[in-house]
Design a protein that fits this description.
It is a single chain. By secondary structure, the protein is an alpha+beta fold. Helices cover 36% and strands 20% of the residues. It is built from three helices and four strands, in the order βαβααββ. The chain has a four-stranded mixed β-sheet, with helices on one face.
């Protein structure tokens, strides 16, 4: 998908976009004319060594990415820490999309870890 052309009539759907693939897709979609982005974030710990995005400081980015790996932990305390980190990262992505002028929302689930879904749309031209 990093090399694919996103056309104006294409909806972008990405399931389990691991690491910074989520961020690359968001940036590529935002620069396109595609009307819809649906992306399930995943394995954010793999982005820990990447440059910080969305206005987060590098140290916070790295810490949140690493902590997000704990979503799979059997320990409730660790899993909760991982879910909070994942939520913080995904909310930063949604806020970024909103700052760019898109409609964006985050849907979460407690049914399984790493199930957050970001949906973004271009606002209808009036």
């Amino acid at each position: 998908i990093q090399e694919a052309e996103i056309t104006a009539d294409a909806a972008v759907v990405a399931k389990h976009a691991c690491g910074d693939l989520t961020d690359g897709i968001i940036e590529k979609w935002a620069a396109s004319e595609s009307p819809l982005l649906v992306i399930m974030t995943c394995c954010q710990d793999k982005a820990a060594d990447q440059p910080a995005r969305y206005g987060l400081e590098q140290s916070e980015w790295t810490e949140l990415c690493k902590a997000s790996a704990k979503t799979n932990s059997a320990k409730d305390k660790d899993r909760s820490e991982g879910m909070r980190a994942m939520l913080r990262l995904d909310n930063a992505r949604v806020d970024y999309l909103k700052r760019l002028g898109f409609e964006a929302k985050l849907t979460t689930t407690d049914k399984f870890p790493k199930g957050d879904v970001i949906v973004a749309r271009r606002k209808k031209k009036v």
